[in-house]
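Exercise 7. Predict the joint structure of the components listed below.
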Amino acid sequence: MKIEIKNYKGSKVVAPDGEIDMYSSPELRNALMTLINKKTKTLYIDFKDVTYMDSSGIATFVEGLKTMKAYGGRLKLIGLSEGIMEIFRFSKLDNIFEIFGNIEDALNN
Amino acid sequence: MKNSTVIKIPSHAKYLCVVRSVTEKMGELYGMTAPEIEDVKLAVDEACANAIKHACKGNEELIISVKYNLKRKGFEVVIDDSGQKARPDAIKGRDLDDVRPGGLGVHLIKRVFDVFAFDEKKKNGNRLRLVRHRRINPPEADKSS
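Solution:
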């Protein structure tokens, strides 16, 4: 899995590319926590190129969200595939996370 | 119809992609739909991840075997490890209303497989048997009515 971190209209966007599983999720966690430890106000996660995610990936984002909420930060998820969205629904996390279809909607929210 | 395939992987998370690839192909051979295959792939991944993390404690010297049995009545996956014995009564998964990292794996497995059973007769390590009963597709709606 590759992780791209980019700036888009002044906001930090983390874009994983590939499969998020127990092997690759620690690398994703490190990338997220590096930004979160800097108290990044709003972080966007672009799922456009994520082809698979298991519960370790979900755990990574739950941890990130909880840490960000503690300092008033926001974690926004963008472009989830229907399969990944279904896992969020099943896990009752679709009401916990801010989920958007595209980055413009996320930025405007 | 009964066909079996076995793969053996070292107990290390980097091999989960191998398990997923084989699971996907076995699902295709069994005639599952694409969404079913994705669900089964996730569930088997979660089960193997649990074996690596909790039973084998990441000891790469230990081997995990994954056996696929394609039976007329159902798709069976048997996961064997030689790690620490699990306590089936303690394997529940977290309450889904208790939002915290972790604890989802068992739910994701049980969501897909109709049978989730540890073989208590296995003395050393664990043998987890998962069975997804064959789904019968609903008949097409009567077009004359």
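Discussion. The CA atoms of residues 7 and 22 of chain B lie 8 Å apart.
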